[in-house]
Design the sequence.
């Protein structure tokens, strides 16, 4: 694929680091999606937008695929070089350029780790609320590419709600600024929002200006154990109907908690034998007395269901423990078995119906699933466990089961992915949500931005 | 333009009301933009999405322009039939389909008046925060088409932040659903956000599902009189730096207030002679004691500047009066003089510099301007007053002045329109913000959605 003329042009880009050794190619050939491995043919690590522009210009002329690589924490295979070509690692765009205290904005390179960004602005009393579970290693650019969500989305929204403006490089090397650093904008088509969630298929995002909020200084965290998992899902909607908007409302099935407790040492959480699900509920604000008053009222909402004693976290350490338990589930499942993860999302009231449907479909196809996720915004992660399923069952029956899960999700007013993106592993399910004319509109947009189809080929769109 | 075969096909659409009388054509040929009049050749009033689809299909085959018409409150001429053709009045899509208390969403026809929608959901304790000044007559569909903002955007965001899903009709008559009724969505390109703010040039929007919030039950409103208008602008940024996020923070120049006071009867507001600008500041929430405490702290932020006595509105009636004063400014200016309104927006800290620059440019070209707007989000409405300028000055010098205002706005990190859209009157200023390759991307998208260019031609894009 990589001709000598292509390589020599690439090597003529001043100060661009290129790697072709097997170890590097393998390293950049996987992310957190199952056990997939798609090494690129070459890895480049530009450090400036001009270098990105030069790489794309050459790749476009030679029609070589370019896959933008971030923190490699993706769960849909979005950053895997499934067609080979260039792995464009953004890791050197790791500078926070400006924390703008006057306008409550931050301008950052897209390879800054999300947690690093959140911590940096917090030091100035500012809040970047988007907190995917992988925040300790994912890049802000990957969050933008996949429109990442996380646990605070029910109150604070998702990545798209914070992106004001992007610097991006088009397939032909043109550098654009998508919008303006303003809270309001009604000036032409919203290319900023079009790039958010476009999974590296429309442009390479090199810099982002994000909206910030004042940091809420207080929070209350409680763990509510339910004997019946469907009731836990029902309670989610009851919380909002009662007028509360928690800053987090997480659902965990019994299995999810057990696996997390086994996986993480020293988690000081005891779960009674008859408990089948938990809600982890956080309220935040600036007035602790008011939060405690609200939390008390919230308890009476939960007490209408069959619950065990509610645990109030009474120290920062205990809060960290509870969040660690929640955030370890994905890794715990991965350590336990081969699995496939789906990222279903529905209007939150439809959660009980979705959960019951998933269990029914599991029974039909003979698979076990572990479900957990951001119930407050209707986003349920479904881990389908391989366990002792045969290769044939895994390859043939499971995709049928997943198809039925997605059909149910769409029938309930939901969609295929809430925050992980479609990437490589979900792309062939896209026709369940979108008719051909809709996919053709998206293909048309893709073609405007990237007529040679070099940017992240083999993603989002179903195989022909 | 309208051939017999076209008219007979149109008249074959069952139950579609068509109008060609001069009175109707003139009525639908203007909005609130200056004194412009561009009557369509025919007005149709579909009542169903199938009728919209049928109209577009025929128009597309015959290549007849279609302009979607809403509440005709636009300020950029977005709904004017500048190329003639069909005026597609959406007024019969005026049903709220469902207020979904379980998921805090509303699904509505796009011809529902914004205030009607806000009142309807408020009766259920729910809040649709977007409140353009024209909310008493503008349609929610027009708000979506222009990405309308309003006074609460600094805390609650703009229209785009509430649109979850749209039903829309493409130029060829295809009916699509753009997204899903979910808070999170990472499933393909975000066509929902692409249609928001696209000013009727990509599709006809027939139904919208909008996110709602619990209604904040309490608020505090205060009017802060400043002796120096630049200091009033500076104070805006100081409020946020001190950790406050008011629900409204409006700026009004002295002239704006004087004109509003003359225009509206019985406004019980007295302004001292040495006051040159006001900030109208609202805090909202659910705990009145806490709001009053915050308001007191906020006063000390303002007291660092040269201000007169702060007025606290002590009754609902007084609050309504202050808001009426603010909302009447546009009409008052219109009643006073021929004018042109620009809708500049910058990062909020740049407001004082923008305001001073506008006055400097006004002095250079000999025009008076009245400035007011949503200072909390950096959105300043600039009314350029014709007064006794000659026709030549008005036609030749003023556009040069506007060009300089926009150049300054862009240089300050801002953009041409915060919430009114580009429409007809701002389109030739687009190259100030966007280089050709950027406009070409937008044109490419337009071409994917509307290859024959029938949807709202002559808008957004600069003349060739």
Sequence:
């Amino acid at each position: 694929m990589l001709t000598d003329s292509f390589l020599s042009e690439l090597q003529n880009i001043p100060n661009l680091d290129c790697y072709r050794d097997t170890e590097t190619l393998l390293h950049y050939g996987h992310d957190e999606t199952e056990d997939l491995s798609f090494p690129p043919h070459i890895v480049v690590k530009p450090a400036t937008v001009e270098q990105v522009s030069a790489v794309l210009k050459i790749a476009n002329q030679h029609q070589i695929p370019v896959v933008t690589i971030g923190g490699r924490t993706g769960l849909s295979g979005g950053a895997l070089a499934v067609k080979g070509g260039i792995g464009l690692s953004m890791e050197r765009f790791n500078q926070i350029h400006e924390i703008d205290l006057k306008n409550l904005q931050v301008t950052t390179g897209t390879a800054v780790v999300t947690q690093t960004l959140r911590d940096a602005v917090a030091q100035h009393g500012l809040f970047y609320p988007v907190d995917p579970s992988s925040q300790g290693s994912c890049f802000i650019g990957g969050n933008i590419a996949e429109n990442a969500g996380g646990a605070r989305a029910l109150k604070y929204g998702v990545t798209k709600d914070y992106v004001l403006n992007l610097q991006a490089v088009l397939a032909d090397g043109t550098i654009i600024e998508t919008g303006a650093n303003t809270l309001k904008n009604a000036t032409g088509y919203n290319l900023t929002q079009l790039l958010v969630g476009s999974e590296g298929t429309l442009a390479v995002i090199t810099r982002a200006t994000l909206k910030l909020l004042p940091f809420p200084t207080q929070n209350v965290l409680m763990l509510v154990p339910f004997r019946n998992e469907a009731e836990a899902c029902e309670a989610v909607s009851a919380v909002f109907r009662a007028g509360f908007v928690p800053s987090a409302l997480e659902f965990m099935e019994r299995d999810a908690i057990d696996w997390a407790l086994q996986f993480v040492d020293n988690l000081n959480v005891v779960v009674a034998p008859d408990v089948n699900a938990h809600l982890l509920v956080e309220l935040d604000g600036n007035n602790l007395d008011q939060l405690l008053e609200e939390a008390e009222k919230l308890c009476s909402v939960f007490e209408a269901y069959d619950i065990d004693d509610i645990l109030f976290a009474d120290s920062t350490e205990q809060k960290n423990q509870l969040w660690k338990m929640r955030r370890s589930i994905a890794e715990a499942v991965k350590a336990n078995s081969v699995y496939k993860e789906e990222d279903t999302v529905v209007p939150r009231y439809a959660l009980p119906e979705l959960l019951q449907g998933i269990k029914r479909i599991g029974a039909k196809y003979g698979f076990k699933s572990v479900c957990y996720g951001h119930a407050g915004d209707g986003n349920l992660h479904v881990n389908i466990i391989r366990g002792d399923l045969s290769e044939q069952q895994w390859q043939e029956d499971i995709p049928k089961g997943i198809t039925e899960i997605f059909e149910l999700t769409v029938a309930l007013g939901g969609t295929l992915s809430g925050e992980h993106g479609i990437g490589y592993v979900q792309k062939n399910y896209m026709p369940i949500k979108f008719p051909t004319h809709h996919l053709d509109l998206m293909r048309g947009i893709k073609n405007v931005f990237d007529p040679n189809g070099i940017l992240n080929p083999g993603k989002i769109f179903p195989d022909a």
Notes: The first helix of chain B runs from residue 4 to 11. The domain at 218-322 of chain B is CATH 3.30.70.2190 (Alpha-Beta Plaits). The mean pLDDT of chain B is 96.
